[in-house]
Amino acid sequence: MRLTSFMTTCVALFPIAISADSNLSEPLSSQQILPNNFKPPQVFQNVNLLRNTNLEKSYVRETVNVVIENIDLKPQDAYYIPFSVDVVGKVGGLEVRDKKSPGPSFRTELVEYDPYSPTQFFRTTLPQPLSPKSQLTLSITYHILSTLTPLPFKIGQNDKQYLRYTFSTYTPSAYPTLKQKTKIKFPTTDVPDAIGGSPERQGSTFTYGPFNDLIPAGALEPASVRYEFTKPLIHGTRLERDIEVSHWGGNLATEERYWLTNQGAHLIDNFNRVQWATAQYYKPPTSALRDLNVPLKVGSLNPYFTDDIGNVSTSRFRSNRREANLELKPRYPVFGGWKYNFRIGWDADLKTFLRVLKSPAEGYVLKVPFLEGPRMGEGVSYGKVELQVILPEGAKNVKFETEVPLVKVEETVHRTFMDTVGRTTLKLTAVNVVDETREKPLIVTYDYPFTAAFRKPVTIFLGIAAVFVTAWAIGRLDVSIGKQS
Description:
mainly beta; 4 helices; 30 strands; single chain; disordered N terminus; seven-stranded mixed beta sheet
C-alpha cells in the first residue's frame, strides 16, 4: 500500500476551479495557467462515445465511455476534458480510468483558471503515452452540483415538483468525434417537456442519437428537459466532520456539523401546519425534507442529535449485530429555500478501525470512512467538506491516503483539557462532494511512541502534586501579626 505524504498529496491532487457560483471562498492556483485562446492540440479523435446522464438524484451524474485514437505522428499522453466556465466550479469527483483494465484512476488536474475564458480544461495524463494509430477506451465519471432548477419556481405545499435540466445533446469534447450517443435516465416517466433534439423515448430513458456524422471539436447542440422530481434537493453548504482517536479510552469519537438547505421549489403560500399534519397519515410524495437516515458502523453507541436550540428528541437509534442506524427528524419540515443546521455524534470501539504496524514497532494505521452522514434515495450533496482527524498527543510522522480529490491539506495542533503541546491534527478539505463518497476510505498512518502514552497521566500527576505542594507551602507561612515568643 502506497502512503502519500502531505507534500506529495498537495501537488498530485488537482485543485478545483472557481466560478461565480463556486463553493470556495478563495481561488486556488492551478499548476499551469493557459491563455484565453488556448486550444488543446488536435492529436486525438473520439472514435466512439457514449454518454450516460443520470437524473435520479438531486445532482447530475455523468458517465462518458469513449474510445480515443492517437492521430498524431508521435506518442501522446495528455487528454483534455472541457467544461464551460459556469459549470466547472460545480464539478466534483472527476475520475478517468481505463475501462478495459481495472486499476487506479489516472492523474487529472485543472490546467486553466481564467475568469474571462468561456471554457476551462481538465487534463488527464495517461499512465503510458499512446502510440500513433493506437486506441484506448476511457471511462470518465463525475457529478455536477446545483445545476437543476425547479420549474415552476414556486409551488403549493402538496403539489408535484418539476425540475429543468439544460445540456447539449453533443457531448462537449476538445477533439472531433466520429460517432456518439447520449442517454438520459429520469426518476419517473413523467417528462412533460423536452426542447431540442429528437430523443427516442423508452420508459424513463431518453436517447439522443446515434450521431454518425463527424462532429467537430467544441460543437454543441443546446437542449433542455423538464421532469417530475417530488423529492427534496438536499444540499449541505458546509459539513465539518471531526474524528478523535483516544488510545487510553480505546474510543473513536465522531462528530459532524451540518449546514443543510433544500434547493427545491419554494412555497407559493405560507406553510400550513394543519395541512402538513393531516398529510402525514398517508405520507404522499413531498418536496420537503421530513427525515434523515444515517447508517453507522456496527457497534456504534452513545449517539446524540442537537441543533441551534438544543437537544432534539425526535430521533431514533436502532443497533444490533448486523446494523446500526440513526433516524433523525428535524424540528420542522424543510421546504424549498429553507435551512436547517444541526450536529450529530457517536462513539465506536477503536479496535474496529485501528491496527498496529509490525514495522515500525510504534506505528499505527487508522482506516475510517472519509464521509458518513445521511444516506437518502434522492441523494445528498455537499459544497464544502472539512475533515479533521485528531490523533493522540505525541503522534508524529503522519501520512495519509484517500481517493477523494482534495483542495487543501493541513497539519495543525488541537488543544484539549490537560494537554501539554496539543494533539496532532490532520485537516483535509474537499469541495463538491456527494453521498456516493461514503464508500471511499481514508487511511492514516502515524507513529505513537510508548513514552508519549504516559504524557497525559504524568501531566495530571504533576498538576495534582503541584496543588498539594502549593497548599503545603502556603500552610507553612507565618501570617500572624504579633511577635514570635
